[in-house]
Description:
about 100 residues; mainly alpha
Amino acid sequence: MEININSIKKYSQKIIKSILFLLYISFIGSLIFGGIIPGIMTLIPDEASKPCYLGYYAHCSFTPYSTLILFAMAIIGTVLLLKLIKYVRRQYNKFKEAKPT
């Protein structure tokens, strides 16, 4: 079996694209889940050394601001996920049209 340089390049590019796709998915997942779950946790009343800016003793003393920042992270992650889904659909339709039947 003869090894072709072009096939090695093609397969290595596919592997690199797959790895980058997985890294992007994990980044988006961490943005979404890392924004929603801690954002909700900051609102929970808890014992603290000083009251939060809303006037009660919360889990986080910067409660309204940290919650907004974390929810903004989750929204950015959701927007990136929607863009990724649109890109994958476009690539799938392009592949489906180019495939001879």
